[in-house]
Write a structure and sequence with these properties.
29% of the residues lie in helices and 11% in strands. By secondary structure, the chain is an alpha+beta fold.
Length: 90
């Protein structure tokens, strides 16, 4: 789990960072936003529905799953990983 100090140091500015973060996300995941070639599990096992996802706005949140390689990273709600844990879509 991230400390309050670590979370505070990861300032997120939705108005200025959203477009840049979306480009980084698509690049990191090798995903094109204009295709429908994603695997089926990507639709069910998304970060937004993981119980270890701490939302910071309507699209983005912190991964707090210590078993995930993405722990401590800002994640797009529609991303996924192999350590996804069923939760409630918030």
């Amino acid at each position: 789990m991230l400390s309050k100090q670590e979370e505070a140091s990861m300032a997120f500015h939705p108005q200025t960072d959203r477009a840049h973060l979306t480009v980084i996300w698509c690049d990191r995941c090798s995903r094109a936003v204009n295709t429908n070639d994603e695997r089926d599990h990507f639709h069910a096992e998304q970060c937004g529905g993981c119980r270890k996802f701490k939302r910071v706005d309507t699209d983005w949140g912190w991964c707090r799953n210590h078993e995930s390689v993405y722990c401590g990273r800002l994640m797009f709600e529609h991303d996924t990983c192999s350590q996804w844990l069923e939760g409630t879509w918030a």
